[in-house]
Amino acid sequence: MIAEGALALDPLVVGVILAMALVTALTKVGGLWVLRRIEVSERLEAGLSVLPGAIVIAILGPELAAGGPAEWGAAGVVLLVMWRTESILLSLCGGVGAVVLFRALV
Amino acid sequence: MTGFDGSDADHDPGDPAGRATDEPVAESRAPADERQPVTFSREGIRAGLLTCLPVAVGVGGYGVAFGMLARRAGLSVAEAALMSATVLAGAAQIVAVELWAEPLPVATIVLTTLAINLRYSLMGAALGPWLERLSPGRSYGSLLLMADENWALTMRDLKSGSGRGAFLLGTGIAMWCFWVASTILGAAAGGVIGDPARYGIDFVLAAVFVALAAELWEGRSTLVPWLVALATAVAAAELVPGRWYILLGGLAAAAVEVILHDR
Description:
The complex is a heterodimer of chains A (106) and B (263).
Chain A: H1 11-35, H2 42-49, H3 51-66, H4 69-85, H5 88-105
Chain B: H1 6-11, H2 19-29, H3 42-73, H4 77-86, H5 90-99, H6 106-117, H7 119-126, H8 128-131, H9 136-144, H10 148-159, H11 167-193, H12 204-216, H13 223-239, H14 244-260
């Protein structure tokens, strides 16, 4: 059942993976570490408060721009289902179903 | 965060008209006030885990795709699983296995991972008003399990004033389990499934973010920073190699919000 070599661990590969894990861990804890050491003004806090949505939009924008009518239509379906049901799971199913359908049609 | 710095105190008296439009912003900041205690309880972990389950299932589709890509790039199932278990950063992992080649471009892979994941510092900082009131072990430990999706869910929960400091840990546990399991599934069964685009699996991540954007929308005050983020990210994706556009889009929106704060 398990393909040959599936459990292989090459020392160099493991080293690269652990280096990736280390820098990722530093980025994850780094923001809070810095924040604990500086005084945050109300103004900076307002800036931080828009980060959540802004980063989501920054990830989405180029991804959808690189897509086509099928992806845009499916994104619209996700929004619609989300607006109607507020269920992430239903939205995901609707979006994935829509993208498969639209790709077949376009 | 109740203390004013000098510049805020200077600007307040000169801007009485701006108060009314500021209200939604002030409201969303209220939960960060000292009066709202931040707890770290088993109940918080449970709430986070259950809330994140449907999202984690969606992320699982993405993990299957990653597992397949990793296997195609030449990683073993064990290596792909190890990467998912220790790195836990979807976009960076996918890009890393795209860079995978013989001989291994170690510096490129590690630096690209750092660049893609720098946004986590901003995201961790955004959780600061709540997490900084937990012990270092609890806050930093929770942050290690932070990924895009569960961070957004946690922001929503904490902004609502729940005070559940353990929510991030709960969502992180759900994310980790599904991410690792789906990676193993994708890597082990990769050859059988074929082209992920045929089943729309490649669209799962975009769909997750559209849904999260719908949840994070806070009305008209959100419009300007989002448009700035969108324009910056789309332009940067064209001009700058790698995934810097995520970081640049977020920073540009935050900068504009800081500049426009008094209006």
